[in-house]
Design a protein that fits this description.
two-stranded antiparallel ribbon; Alpha-Beta Plaits; single chain; 7-stranded mixed sheet; 9 strands; alpha+beta; globular
């Protein structure tokens, strides 16, 4: 019988990703990928990024991958000591930086003509959409595995991810106030840095009207929240991102429902460009990002 370690609920920030068009990646990909190739790409695309982020920033971001669903979460700990509060705020900041890297990779890998995927040992593309939430979850372990994940932020993140109609990662409007409060100074520790303002000033988060699906209608509406930015400051990477999206759009002329997702993503990139809300490219430089690949 497996050892069962009952655990109290933990407070965490939680992101759920969906890999769009996963059935085509598995069954209909023109490169005829096998399951092992896809698993290897998952390792390089998701897992190595998390490992590298944890190593560089001394964080403990956890993840689970199930087919086309990726779960990424970080416990933000206790408010009992100011040093710990400062530490978890930095960790959440680094968590958002990691989300930005993952999203940037996702867009750049849309088209192999735009960037040499082989250099990163990644096969195929992984267009993603994600929702971010916060709150308490139960993560119960059996022999160091995590087969049980239950909690409201999981549902919140999933439902918000499903509503969006683009490639992008954004904070669920129902979790926006709690995440903002987590990262801002409070009446107990007023002297701590305002990491929410830092996320905004560093352009890791941008206030934006996210396109959401209107049920039973072929149109979108827009809900304002904060979006994880993925557009670096260097022009060559801006061009790569735009070209990758536009090339993909050109292949979807006969599929307007898919095409609109990419068109809405281009609108976001154009908004970032028009407002010059770029992220410093140095934030993307490590061995497990597309930009960092040699």
């Amino acid at each position: 019988m497996e050892n069962y370690n009952e655990k109290d609920p933990i407070d965490c920030i939680f992101t759920e990703f969906d890999i769009l068009g996963f059935k085509d990646i598995v069954k209909n990909n023109e490169k005829r990928l096998n399951i092992q190739q896809i698993a290897n790409s998952y390792h390089n695309y998701f897992i190595n990024n998390v490992i590298e982020s944890n190593k560089n920033n001394n964080t403990d971001i956890k993840f689970q991958i199930f087919s086309d669903t990726v779960l990424l979460y970080l416990e933000y700990g206790s408010w009992s000591k100011s040093s710990r509060v400062e530490n978890y705020k930095k960790n959440i900041y680094n968590y958002f930086n990691l989300l930005s890297i993952i999203m940037c990779n996702s867009v750049l890998l849309l088209n192999s003509k735009v960037f040499p995927n082989v250099a990163c040992n990644i096969t195929g593309s992984f267009p993603i959409r994600g929702g971010i939430a916060s709150g308490s979850i139960v993560a119960e372990a059996i022999n160091s595995n995590y087969p049980i994940l239950i909690g409201e932020p999981i549902i919140d993140a999933y439902e918000w991810e499903q509503q969006q109609n683009w490639l992008g990662i954004s904070i669920s409007p129902t979790s926006l106030d709690s995440i903002k409060s987590l990262m801002s100074p409070n009446y107990i520790y007023e002297d701590l840095d305002d990491f929410w303002s830092k996320l905004i000033s560093d352009n890791l988060l941008i206030k934006y009207g996210v396109p959401v699906k209107v049920k039973k209608e072929n149109r979108v509406e827009y809900v304002e929240t904060y979006v994880v930015n993925f557009v670096p400051s260097e022009q060559k990477y801006i061009n790569m991102i735009k070209n990758a999206l536009l090339e993909k759009i050109n292949t979807l002329s006969s599929d307007p429902l898919k095409r609109i997702k990419y068109e809405e993503t281009v609108k976001f990139v154009d908004f970032v460009i028009s407002k010059k809300l770029y992220i410093e490219a140095v934030k993307f430089q490590n061995d497990f990002t597309v930009i960092g690949c040699k």
